[in-house]
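[User]
Um, tokens okay?
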Amino acid sequence: MLELLIIIVTLVLDQASKIIAADWLPGLPNATYPLFEGVFELSYVENRGAAFGMLQNARWLFILLTLVACGALIYLMIKKHAQMHKMLRVCLSLIIAGALGNFVDRLFLGYVRDMFYFSLIDFAVFNVADAAISVGGVLLVADLLFSKKGKAFLVELDKKKAPDTAKKGETPSEQSTADTEQGGNER
């Protein structure tokens, strides 16, 4: 339930901010409004590419990739929900919400509306969806690398991939040696 709430709230904030920016900012000189002079501005941009404007006009590629990525993440969250701790589910929900926010723009408009600009560091113009993806991604990496629950989830996934063929107390290399001595893989 928390995951669905995060996705819905993020999508609403993203689309509302994009609608407001598209209605208000283009009428200003240079389509820009300084919030903190020389530091942070609202600046309306229609991005027809990916992050930092890469791969311009590859709309259908982005739509397809978003569907595949979101589908895989949603499948993972449903299938492994019981094994996932709350922080992991929050991170994946933010990533899904951000991807869907930009997906809506690409699907219906053919471009993504961006409006936040850190002029102090001359960073790319971004939106709420981009921020959700970035925050979710950074928290996900930190969680998987540094938290005990994140590491435990990775170990659990790894165990599911490897076949459990070793006898109790034996390592896989000890098991294969024992199998060879017995003349095959009889179990």
Q: What stands out?
A: Helices lie at 2-24, 59-79, 86-109, 128-146, 148-161, 172-181. Residues 179 and 185 are 5 Å apart (CA to CA). The longest helix spans residues 86-109. The two ends are 45 Å apart (CA to CA).
